[in-house]
């Protein structure tokens, strides 16, 4: 039986979550909390298998509570919150950096009348519990100082040693569970004056994508925007795929969106982006596959490598879920494996290839 502690300052939401969870044959709500202080105390007292929490709570916000839980009684955490806007955006994604596993949208009472939605919500909670605790002491999460990831040897020497290209037309990054803090770390050392364009596919409910992009914009040195149909990508910019739309890039570096069928149960799918890059850019591209459940991105990364691209997969020790990178390893899709800090160190060496040379 999965023992769940529900934390939310709304009594109405507490009751709704209790109804949803207690209706499952393998779950039970063992307690509730309305403040951050209560949450920490109840985790210590009840020792639940899973915590659901909002990030905006009185008497200690969700970030402080998550940090104390991870320090005192590490427990899997699912953030259940409204679509993050403004301050809520920062708190939500900072919670993921503090050890929370996943962010889910708050359900409305209509979910009680929709068996499919109820089953999906319960499945997501089980997944968080199965993933377990994220050890934030592991080097998967920290945001490095750009100076700390600069190569100590001349770029040409390091590039030859690691097979890292000196320049590239673009960098593509794919991630799922545990991805947001890893993406931040991987991109935090890039120099906006010299970095190639970066395209990002993060598996995430569509209502959270604007908040995710805003959080990256606030924490990265590069300009960050949501990818739009017909946008011509620019060096030193980050483009985040919209929720529920596939993202591709053509030979001229123009972005396109598609509403085709989900792939690996995902839209956007990392494989769709990677395959388009393999088709149009070959050896002029860099592919990075990060933590996540399932297999999305593995075949696309292999296609990129077959086309001559420099490809990187996150190593097992630093993954929240060693799923997507593991499948990439089975396909021999990655030239290099590394933790996020190491990947940042590699990517910083790569400068933008002008599109006048790359297109065509």
Describe this structure in words.
The chain is an alpha/beta fold and 360 residues long. It has 2 domains: 2-131, Rossmann fold; 146-358, 3-Layer(aba) Sandwich (Rossmann fold), CATH 3.40.50. It contains 13 helices and 16 strands. The chain has helices spanning 11-22, 36-46, 62-72, 87-97, 115-131, 155-162, 179-187, 209-219, 270-280, 298-306, 324-330, 340-347, 355-358, and strands spanning 2-7, 27-33, 50-53, 77-81, 102-105, 167-168, 170-175, 198-202, 224-226, 238-240, 246-249, 255-258, 285-289, 310-314, 336-338, 351-352. Strands 9-10-8-7-13-14-15 form a 7-stranded parallel beta sheet, sandwiched between helices. The longest helix has 17 residues, at 115-131. The protein is elongated and about 55 Å long. It starts with a strand and ends with a helix. The model is unreliable at 137-161 (pLDDT under 50).
Summarize the entry for a quick read.
This protein is an alpha/beta fold and about 350 residues long.
Layout of strands and helices, then pairs:
Blueprint lengths: L1 E6 L3 H12 L4 E7 L2 H11 L3 E4 L8 H11 L4 E5 L5 H11 L4 E4 L9 H17 L23 H8 L4 E2 L1 E6 L3 H9 L10 E5 L6 H11 L4 E3 L11 E3 L5 E4 L5 E4 L11 H11 L4 E5 L8 H9 L3 E5 L9 H7 L5 E3 L1 H8 L3 E2 L2 H4 L2
Parallel strand pairs: 1-2, 1-3, 3-4, 4-5, 6-16, 7-8, 7-13, 8-10, 9-10, 13-14, 14-15
Antiparallel strand pairs: 11-12
Helix pairs in contact: 2-3, 3-4, 4-8, 7-12, 9-10, 10-11
């Amino acid at each position: 039986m999965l023992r769940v502690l529900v934390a939310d300052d709304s009594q109405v939401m507490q009751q709704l979550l209790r109804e949803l969870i207690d209706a499952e044959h393998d779950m039970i709500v063992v307690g509730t909390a309305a403040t951050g202080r209560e949450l920490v105390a109840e985790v210590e007292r009840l020792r639940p298998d899973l915590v659901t929490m909002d990030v905006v709570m009185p008497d200690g916000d969700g970030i402080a509570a998550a940090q104390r839980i991870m320090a005192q009684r590490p427990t899997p955490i699912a953030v259940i919150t409204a679509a993050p806007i403004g301050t809520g955006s920062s708190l939500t994604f900072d919670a993921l950096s503090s050890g929370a596993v996943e962010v889910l949208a708050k359900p409305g009472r209509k979910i009680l009348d929709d068996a499919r939605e109820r089953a999906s919500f319960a499945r997501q909670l089980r997944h968080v519990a199965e993933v377990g605790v994220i050890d934030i002491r592991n080097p998967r999460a920290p945001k490095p100082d750009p100076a700390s990831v600069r190569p100590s040897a001349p770029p040409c020497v390091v590039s030859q040693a690691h097979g890292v290209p000196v320049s590239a037309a673009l960098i593509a990054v794919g991630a799922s569970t545990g991805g947001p803090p890893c993406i931040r770390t991987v991109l935090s050392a890039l120099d906006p004056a010299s970095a190639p364009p970066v395209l990002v596919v993060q598996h995430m409910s569509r209502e959270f994508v604007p908040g995710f992009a805003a959080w990256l914009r606030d924490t990265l040195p590069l300009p960050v925007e949501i990818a739009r149909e017909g946008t011509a990508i620019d060096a030193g910019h980050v483009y985040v795929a919209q929720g529920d739309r596939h993202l591709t890039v053509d030979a001229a570096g123009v972005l396109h969106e598609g509403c085709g069928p989900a792939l690996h149960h995902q839209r956007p799918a990392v494989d769709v982006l990677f395959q388009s890059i393999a088709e149009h850019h070959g050896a002029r591209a860099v592919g990075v596959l990060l933590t996540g459940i399932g297999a999305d991105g593995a075949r696309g990364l292999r296609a990129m490598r077959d086309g001559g691209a420099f490809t990187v997969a996150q190593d097992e020790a630093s993954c929240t879920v060693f799923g997507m990178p593991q499948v990439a390893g089975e396909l021999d899709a990655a030239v290099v494996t590394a933790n996020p800090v190491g990947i940042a160190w590699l990517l910083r060496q790569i400068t933008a290839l002008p599109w006048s040379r790359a297109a065509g």
